[in-house]
Amino acid sequence: MATQCLAMVQQYNLMKNNLTAIVTGANAGLGYATAKKFCDNGITTYVNGRNEEKTLKACEELGPNAKPFILDLNNLKEIPEAVAKIAKEAGAIDILVNNAGINMKKEFMEVTDEEFQSILHTNVTSVFVMSREVSKFMKEKNSGSIINISSMAAQYGIPKVIAYSASKTAIEGMTRAMAVDLAEHGIRVNCVAPGFIKTNMSGKALDSDPERKNKVLSRTPMGRLGEPSDIGDAVFYYATTQSKFTTGTILPIDGGNSIGF
To answer: Residue 21 — pLDDT band, cuts 50, 70, 90?
Structure first.
């Protein structure tokens, strides 16, 4: 009962403050789980996706606090106008979650220049542009929280994902640099680094590769895959005043995988 009462108070406070969030890549997977956590707690959430049908369906499932934000973030020149439109419509942008990203599994020596640059363009450059544009509006209120999504690929070497690993390592470095640059404007910047989380995509991949699945679980002290909601909970912590004196940090949500032996 006490836990339920506390949750209700927290939700009331969030609704009272009329918080607005943008979550990129939010029509599926970890982004969807994060958007659900926000919407369920009264945060108006702009759900970004490049597929209109999929994004509208996600918003319908998430309920009235979800707003569609349909844009391919590879189109960098369209981001400033899109962000300004959201800021005008919502009145403010309090939270940005940079979740959108792509991966590619390929032998190191077979990766082309174009493929490498494509991953960096989506996973790094679009994050920079989104953060730069959103922070301009956060600065006006002298408050805001930006949460980047990294990966265990930035913590240790994983074979056949050189471009993805480079991009997520860059995200962690950007997180620290952005935190220093934006602190004077009341903007906090942190990063969540998911371990092996059970999504439809990862579940199928691991189930089709028993050797890899066993390796993952054997070095995870908690002995299981994480749930998408585990990431949503961590992002929610960073997004709200529960972490008001926290910036520039990287939080692994991995069941201990990054420290497992």
So the answer is: very high
Residue 203: its pLDDT value, please?
73
Q: Which of 183, 166, 75 is nearest to 123 (CA)?
A: 166
Number of domains into which the chain is organized: 1
- Residue range(s) defining the domain that contains residue 125: 2-199+228-256
Query: What's the sign of the alpha-carbon dihedral 139, 140, 142, 148?
Result: negative
Q: How many CB atoms lie within 10 A of CB 127?
A: 26
Q: Is 237 a catalytic residue?
A: no
Q: Which two tokens stand for residue 18?
A: 């009329």
User: Domain containing 132 — which CATH number?
Assistant: 3.40.50.720
Point out the catalytic residue in the list 32, 164, 237, 238.
Answer: 164
The tens digit of pLDDT for each residue in 126-150 reads: 999 999 999 999 999 999 999 999 9
Give backbone dihedrals phi and psi of 148, rounded to 5 degrees, phi first. -95, 150
